[in-house]
Design brief:
globular; Nuclear Transport Factor 2, Chain: A; alpha+beta; about 45% strand
């Protein structure tokens, strides 16, 4: 494994984690910051959010109504060329009920296309499908 790939893989996983935690906390601007200006996001039940303005509008309209956690794992990075990469990750989405118990609400898989932007790796596209 090259140092370049190892560094990129760590930064890609950081971007994925930053997105998940920002969604769970309702931090819309931090979500937007994980995308390239022309990036897009797609998930079941919503129109494709395109560009920073579209992503901002979509996520601002979906603030967490209660405690939630996106548990993202099994991230596999493929098609790495130094400036672009594809990653797939599994998702388990949990919410906490009134009695404090956590429940699985969604299981899915993300397919991400990321590009290098300076020292960061940002989403060119992020697509979620439910399994």
């Amino acid at each position: 494994m090259s140092t370049e790939y190892a560094d990129a893989a760590a930064r890609i996983r950081d971007t994925i984690a930053t997105y998940a935690q920002a969604v769970d906390d309702g931090r819309t601007e931090d979500i937007v910051a994980t995308f390239l200006p022309d990036g897009w996001a797609s998930f079941p039940g919503a129109d494709i959010a395109r560009g920073h303005d579209g992503i901002r509008a979509t996520y601002a309209a979906l603030p967490p109504g209660r405690a939630q956690r996106h548990l993202v794992g099994n991230t596999l990075i493929t098609e790495f060329d130094g400036d672009a990469a594809t990653a797939t990750s599994d998702l388990v989405f949990l919410t906490r009920g009134k009695e404090g118990h956590w429940a699985v609400r969604i299981v899915g898989r993300y397919t991400d296309h990321l590009r290098r932007s300076g020292n960061a790796w940002l989403f060119a596209s992020r697509e979620l499908v439910f399994i």
